[in-house]
Amino acid sequence: MLLHLFILSSFLLCCVEFVNAGITSAFIRSEFPSVDIPLDNEVFAVPKGQNAPQQVHITQGDYDGKAVIISWVTPDQPGSSLVQYGLSDGNYASKAKGSFRNYTFGDYKSGFIHQCYLDGLEYDKKYYYKIGEGDAARSFWFQTPPKINPDASYTFGIIGDLGQTYNSLSTLKHYMHSGGQTVLFVGDLSYADRYQYHDVGVRWDSWGRFTEQSTAYQPWIWSAGNHEIEFMPYMGEVIPFKSYLNRYPTPYMASKSSSPLWYAIRRASAHIIVLSSYSPFGN
């Protein structure tokens, strides 16, 4: 074992000698601390239309990048869980039907959380999709990755501890102009655990609307952090990761994982392993 560790360490050190990432951005985040954006700010605006889909986000749906999971919330009624999609804008040749759920957290009751699985997608294609009904229907698009290949060129963004402050907004806007194609999110999403009672759920909703400007158009690969635990016995909530697990699905079964909190995927030239350092474990 020691020999194996020595060989691995030597290999990594050799690799480091030949890596030159350089300065990738001139972006400097403003001074900490930053306060949460008020709920009446336009970045949290509810989309127009009766029961219009909101908080739209996509993530990879399989192991090799030929499927996505599209999620959204309808606030008032279940509505439709149908996704129409295709390779040209407005011409949706395919459709898939998902399912919905909701949950409670203290005295908060969520809207109807839809999740729909689209598979059999072609590599390196732009897909257009539509969700919702009638005048409240909304349309978006996403790009599938290139075929799995060690030489495939692909750009990932890495974001963590985003929250919903004014600094969060500058970070998100900066990422959206960076040319990133997929976000590897390293935990601590909404920071809703800074709130209590009904406001915990409200701040999950606002974060979903806030990030939709990116998450509806490209996959964010999720992992949980300590701010997703939300152990709040004073309000009767003792199940860890309850809000996170209800809202943000992962393709854990595709990698034969036993939990949505840890899994693996391949995307372009990357093999990504997602771990959960805040999950209990046994022998």
TrEMBL record:
Its cofactor is Zn(2+); Fe cation. GO terms for molecular function: acid phosphatase activity; metal ion binding. It holds the Pfam family Pur_ac_phosph_N. It is an enzyme of class 3 (hydrolase). Residues 155-263 form the Calcineurin-like phosphoesterase domain. Residues 53-143 form the Purple acid phosphatase N-terminal domain. Gene3D superfamilies: 3.60.21.10, Purple acid phosphatase-like, N-terminal. The keyword Zinc applies. Its EC number is 3.1.3.2. It comes from the Eukaryota. It catalyses: a phosphate monoester + H2O = an alcohol + phosphate. The keyword Translocase does not apply. Residues 1-21 form the signal peptide. InterPro entries: Calcineurin-like_PHP, Metallo-depent_PP-like, PAPs-like, PAPs_N, Purple_acid_Pase-like_N. Keywords: Glycoprotein, Hydrolase, Iron, Metal-binding, Signal, Zinc. Belongs to the metallophosphoesterase superfamily. Purple acid phosphatase family. This is Purple acid phosphatase.
